[in-house]
Specification:
2 domains; mainly beta; seven-stranded mixed beta sheet; 697 residues; Jelly Rolls; Methylamine Dehydrogenase, Chain H; 10 helices
């Protein structure tokens, strides 16, 4: 197989790749392949919380000794208590007014056991069901539905209770959303009380709407002071006092406090970031460039994590100066808000400023500053975001494309070279751009090529109407090309469509981007199910017809119970030494022999992952780091395996940072949707709130 050696001069290391890109061009997956065969990065790393949630367990059996080690208890994983006892319902005249009235004598001191009775009612087990790993895109939070279990009616009360075993004494932070009233005690002491419904997130479907509108509502939070050994946690829940309002449920997460201690291994630094993003960081010399939603470019020192500069790419930034000068509202109303945005570091205050800034621009010109957002994107905006596109760099400048349609260029010192805004009728899923030659290619409804030196539109290719994940640059037969996620091939210089993939359909065929290595295009189809290899080595002229090889039957599209399942993949394939590696969203690794077309490995990976309407357990693409391949989920876990024809894990690593959530969601930092990047010695991993540097020195 042809091996091309690309030298990444600015990074100070030599990176061996298999794709001809152009000197010193970096972008998605580093050089769009995820290949760092010469890297000598750590194989092991970790960051684990050591506060009161560490080793926390729950049980419904009353402990005989409050200091005795638990027997048969259940681990409190992901901050969720799953084992409870419940009793009820108790009818009351007015559940809102009577939430503080005891329905059981000396209620705060209850120490129930299964089968204990209060009048005709009995304490019974109530289990929060485990998450179904095969359930794709659930909208519901992890509700403990007491009302459903008891067939509750308006003006009723119930109690739930569990015993918590803590290895370490200390305070834990609780975040709860509840409908309707709720009162909480720990070890007989009041911790929280409310007599009405209190939702912030409410459902995972809401996450997209809230995020896209810069809203960040806070759910109730309170502390539980836990003793070492056994603790009693009691909750009283009510329905509403209105006919037809039978809801009696809560979603509660326990998490570490912000000042909790951590145990670390090979974590050199972590840099706080302004907001989440699913884009890949890029390395340019001693600088790291990383995006933050919705439009912020951040430049960090790669050795220390110190922020060197940041730049916003708002609609105001992209408004031509002549247009600003023509309307005094820009100077009198917009500019002061923009300056506040630049100066503000507090997250909630910054969002409030953004909302005001957005509304002020809409008031000036609603048609210009209030673009429509395609419904599917708006629903899943909580995982996609506007900053999904990875920046690109040619070693001299950094090029940024935002899902808002704003495109910009900066020099390495942060001086803006140009900025423009694409004209689009509706915002759709953004796609990482490609940089090759003098063309900066972006996809927004269709494919466009911009002059990298000026930002001027060079061409539009309106036949390419489907692409997500990333555009891929390359050279076929010496011709600089850009490949869409659906496999169309366009000449970079003029946008001519050289290959129109006839396999495209209007329906979904997957989300993962292809890989270009030399004259070969590795094109996935239907997630992890099919891998096409297209050979363009003999293609000339204006219309290309590559030789095609197709590998099918890679996946088994059945659940353990025999039901059909689509094996979608957000991660792209890693191609190395005639083998192909990919992980689907259900955390199954596939290794395929490209020569024999045989699937060598179907391995269920031993790590978790958060799956809901706005989360995918695995999205980061497999990455070759020297002797090993790194596989990531979205909950900070990484499995290192040896490349080869069998599954050979060598290490499992965890970055277990817990974030101070303000709504009911798992406390683990979402990390990582982006694959790792490396300078040859250190790894850099993008988390929801931090960028992590992993190394030994």
């Amino acid at each position: 197989m042809l091996r091309h050696l690309a030298t990444w001069i600015l990074a100070g290391v030599t990176l061996s790749g298999l794709a001809a890109r152009g000197d010193d061009v970096v972008g998605w997956r580093g050089n769009w392949t995820g290949l760092w065969p010469d890297a000598q990065t750590p194989v092991e790393w970790s960051r684990l919380p050591m506060g009161a949630t560490r080793g926390l367990q729950c049980a419904t059996t009353r402990p005989a000794d409050e200091s005795a080690a638990p027997q048969g208890a259940t681990a409190v994983r992901d901050g969720l208590i799953r084992d409870w006892l419940v009793i009820g319902p108790f009818p009351v005249a007015d559940s809102v007014k009577q939430v503080d009235e005891s329905q059981i004598a000396n209620e705060a001191e209850l120490k129930p056991a299964a089968g204990d009775k209060v009048g005709d009612l009995e304490w019974n087990p109530l289990v929060l069901p485990p998450e179904d790993r095969w359930q794709f895109g659930t909208t519901e939070l992890a509700w403990l539905d007491v009302g459903k279990a008891l067939d509750a009616k308006p003006n009723q009360v119930a109690y739930i209770h569990t015993y918590l075993y803590a290895q370490t004494a200390g305070a834990v932070r609780a975040v709860v959303e509840h409908g309707f009233g709720l009162k909480v005690w720990v070890n007989g002491k009041p911790a929280f009380s409310a007599n009405d419904r209190q939702y912030a997130l409410g459902s995972y479907q809401q996450m997209g709407r809230l995020t896209i509108s810069d809203e960040y509502p806070h759910a109730p939070t309170f502390e539980l002071q836990l003793n070492k050994g056994w603790n009693r946690l009691l909750c009283k829940l009510t329905t509403a006092n209105k006919a037809g309002w039978n809801e009696m449920r809560m979603c509660m997460y326990l998490m570490e406090k912000a000042d909790a201690p951590y145990e670390e291994k090979n974590i050199l630094w972590k840099a706080p970031l302004a907001n989440r993003s699913t884009s890949t960081p890029i390395l340019v010399g001693n600088r790291i460039f990383v995006m933050a939603d919705p439009d912020q470019l951040i430049c960090l020192d790669k050795n220390t994590g110190k922020q060197l500069w940041t730049a916003y790419n708002t609609y105001y930034d992209a408004t031509p100066q002549a247009q600003r000068d023509a309307n005094p509202a820009f100077k009198d109303k917009v500019k002061p808000l923009y300056q506040q945005l630049l100066d503000e570091s507090d997250y909630d205050k910054r969002l409030a400023i953004r909302r005001k800034l957005t509304q002020t621009l809409k008031d000036i010109d609603d048609a210009t500053y209030n673009p429509r957002v395609e419904g599917h994107m708006s629903s899943h905006f909580g995982v996609v975001g506007y900053s999904l596109p990875t920046p690109c760099s040619d070693g001299k400048n950094v090029y940024v494309f935002c899902g808002t349609g704003v495109v910009a260029c900066y020099d390495l010192a942060g001086q803006r070279q140009w900025i423009t805004r694409l004209s689009v009728p509706v915002l759709v899923y953004p796609c990482s751009p490609a940089l090759i030659g003098n063309t900066f290619a972006v996809f927004m409804g269709h494919l466009r090529g911009l002059d990298k030196n000026t930002g001027k539109l060079l061409w539009e290719q309106k036949a390419v109407t489907q692409s997500c994940a990333s555009l891929i640059p390359g050279k076929f037969g010496g011709v600089e090309i850009i490949v869409s996620q659906k496999g169309d091939v366009v000449r970079a210089s003029d946008g001519a469509l050289l290959y129109n993939n006839a396999e495209k359909i209007t329906g979904d065929t997957g989300w993962n981007a292809p890989v270009v290595l030399g004259n070969l295009l590795y094109l996935p189809w239907y997630g992890a199910s099919v891998l096409n290899t297209l050979d363009f080595s003999q293609c000339i002229g204006e219309k290309w017809t590559p030789a095609r090889t197709r590998i099918e039957g890679i996946t088994i599209s059945k659940q353990p119970d025999g039901k059909w399942i689509d094996r979608w993949a957000a991660s792209s394939w890693l191609i190395h030494d005639d083998l192909a590696y990919v992980v689907d969203i259900y955390k199954t690794l596939y290794i395929v022999d490209l020569k024999s077309k045989q699937t060598l490995v179907r391995q269920q990976l031993d790590f978790g992952g958060l799956m809901h309407y706005n989360a995918l357990p695995v999205a980061a693409s497999p990455t070759l780091l020297g002797k090993y391949i790194c596989l990531l989920n979205n909950q900070g876990e990484a499995i290192m395996i040896e490349p080869g024809r069998t599954f050979k894990p060598v290490a499992k690593n965890v970055i277990g940072t817990q974030l101070p959530r303000v709504w009911a969601a798992p406390p683990q930092e979402t990390l990582s949707y982006a694959p790792p990047i490396t300078d040859g010695q250190r790894l850099y991993l993008r988390g929801e709130q931090y960028l992590y540097c992993i190394g030994t020195k």
